[in-house]
Every structure is written in C-alpha cells, then in structure tokens.
Design a protein that fits this description.
Number of helices of chain A: 0
Order of helices and strands of chain A: EEEEEEEEEEE
Structural class of chain B: mainly beta
Structural class of chain A: mainly beta
Number of strands of chain A: 11
Oligomer: heterodimer
Shape of chain B: globular
Number of helices of chain B: 0
C-alpha cells in the first residue's frame, strides 16, 4: 500500500516567519493530496489540497507544491500567526487516504 | 455550513463489551468513512462505505468491527468485544462523490477501554 512520510515531527517558528512541512509518498498512482489542520481535541479540518495535474496551489498565506517525479509535496505557511499552532497532517489518496504522522507546529508570539 | 456530527463525544467501556459509535454524515454525501487515531499517532483508515456496502477496509478492520447505515441519516461503527488497544479517537468522515472530493471529518468519539 501507499506509505506517506512527513517531516519534521515538530516545528517551532517565531510569529511572522514562514513554516514548511514536507511529505513524500510511495505510490505513483496517488492523485490527490490534502492537508489537514488539527487543533488539540478537535476534528481534522481541510486547509488546502492539490490534485496530481497541478504543481502548485495557493490560498492566501498557505500554499502547497507537488513534485510528481520526486513523489513529494510540501505545505508552506507564510507570515505565521499564533493561531496557526496545531498539528498538520498530509495525506495521499490512492483508493483511500493515507496520512502522514503529523507535524506539531508551534508559533511563538 | 453542514457538518458531520458524532455521538457520543466520549465513551468509556469495559474490555469485552460491545460499543456502537454513531455518525450523521453531511446529508447529500454518498461516501462514508471511519478512521481512528491512537493518542499522539497518525490518523488510520478503517473502512469506507458506499451504496450500502463496504467498499474497502484496512487490516485493522477485523471481524470485531462492523458498519451499518441503519437509516437514511446514521452511519454506525460497532466493535463487538472491545480490547484495551481499541482505545483511540474514532473519526467519521463523509464526502459527496468523486474520488478526489474533500472528505469532511466529524468531531470524533474518544473511546476508552478499561
């Protein structure tokens, strides 16, 4: 089956700095890559996604890039704010969603 | 905006007991899922359900687990004889259709097996 690796497991940044989280996947048939944000004790919420026919997608301070050749995709958050602090999960879809292990992002004021 | 809902929010049970976790997917959605998340770990797929039958299940979803859509709105996960290692957060998700449609997650049920 698909294997999704996510790095780093923890990330601390100062407010206003950028944060980058990287994921790799193993199955070239994966065609959809969502990113979920999960605040403590709450449901995972989709923040951005990208399909395999697109290389980059941006939504305000959040962007995702996809490199199909290298089988990796990344989440970029610019101008981070304390409310961005949460666990972020990447996932890859091939039949079902396979999740990465998550990145605990802490944004210090 | 419609949301997936789940009940109960927290369930405590004794090992060997049966539990039923309930979900109400978004009303016009056709695909339903159960995931679990052991504390501090990744979200893991359990099962997907479409057109009143299981479309895919993971190796975790053994004979102790079953799913049902008893009526037009509820989607349930039953664990027949709970084990300590079943303690986790269980999330229901739904999507409208299409392979790359967004899956929307419910708030989860925290299951604690004593």
């Amino acid at each position: 089956g698909e294997n999704v690796e996510q790095h780093p497991s923890t990330l601390s940044v100062q407010e206003g700095d950028s944060a980058v989280i990287k994921c790799t996947y193993s199955d070239s048939a994966s065609n959809y890559f969502p990113w979920y944000k999960q605040e403590l004790g709450k449901r995972p919420q989709l923040i951005i996604d990208i399909r395999s026919n697109v290389g980059e997608k941006k939504d305000q301070r959040i962007a995702v890039t996809l490199n199909k050749t290298a089988k990796h995709f990344s989440l970029h958050i610019t101008e981070t704010q304390p409310e961005d602090s949460a666990v972020y999960f990447c996932a890859a879809l091939v039949g079902r969603l396979y999740f990465g292990r998550g990145t605990q992002l802490t944004v210090w004021p | 905006e419609p949301e997936v809902t789940q009940t109960p929010s927290h369930q405590v049970t004794q090992m060997g007991q049966e539990v039923i976790l309930r979900c109400v997917p978004i009303s016009n959605h056709l695909y339903f899922y159960w995931y679990r998340q052991i504390l501090g770990q990744k979200v893991e797929f359990l099962v997907s359900f479409y057109n009143n039958e299981i479309s895919e299940k993971s190796e975790i979803f053994d004979d102790q687990f079953s799913v049902e859509r008893p009526d037009g709105s509820n989607f349930t996960l039953k664990i027949r004889s709970t084990k300590l290692e079943d303690s986790a957060m269980y999330f229901c998700a739904s999507k409208r259709g299409g392979s790359t449609d967004t899956q929307y997650f419910g708030p989860g049920t925290r299951l604690t097996v004593l």
